[in-house]
Amino acid sequence: MPRSLAFFTDVALRVAEGGVTERNADHTVIRSPGNPMFWWGNFLLMPAAPQPGDRPRWEALFRRAFPDAEHRTFGVDTPDGGVDSGEWEAAGYEVLRDTVLTAAQTVPPRRTPTLDLRPLHSDADWEAAARLRMAVNAAGPHPHEAAGYLEFVTRKLAGARAVQERGQGAVFAAFDAHGAALSTLGLFDVGEGVARYQTVETHPQHRSRGLAGALVHAAAQWAHERLGTRTLVIVADPDYHAQALYERLGFCPTETQLSFQKRPPDA
Asked: May I ask the CATH architecture of the domain 116-229?
């Protein structure tokens, strides 16, 4: 098991979706052949934080592994965010220090919306989830180009659907009376009694109504019953309000996920 719980779960999910890993003496390559546009499905995992002056060597290893990629993504397989990041930031990288939170069980949210909270089943459900993701992207501060993002979303949801059909988890949504998905997330088993949440999103016009919290709790209950989950894992941007929401639901900060990301020039 990697030393980082976050990357242990990330890598397990990528493999479940059809990805492959290539272990080398000093790093691991994670590939997602079915979704080459997925930055964090195609990345290098470092065994420890890089040392000053290491960046050119790591970039050369990335180019060798992904010669056609325009992005650059590196994960660090440690449970803390300690690193001298100046060299990477000066080269145009985002240095991400996300909070990894865990819980044995969740606390019911204060508000429970009167919506249909359940796993996706039909083609119409999955199409509704795709429309939600497109709406979230369009409303974001740095939206991706629509056609390219739709292709990414289609591939990503197809991978999640395949995992769900094998009984390893599910994508959940809060549906309104018309079948529109107002909030979605994934929760998938990664082994050893651990399940990882993925992509918690709420439609821009339906935020601050308790949808995400209700869905996180409903999915946790489902995972305990269907998957035998003992540890729930969720990752949050510490500068975004979601971390506080997860803590109100019973999650506790456990570690920090450290990564380096450089977007393509046109992203």
From this structure: 3-Layer(aba) Sandwich (3.40)
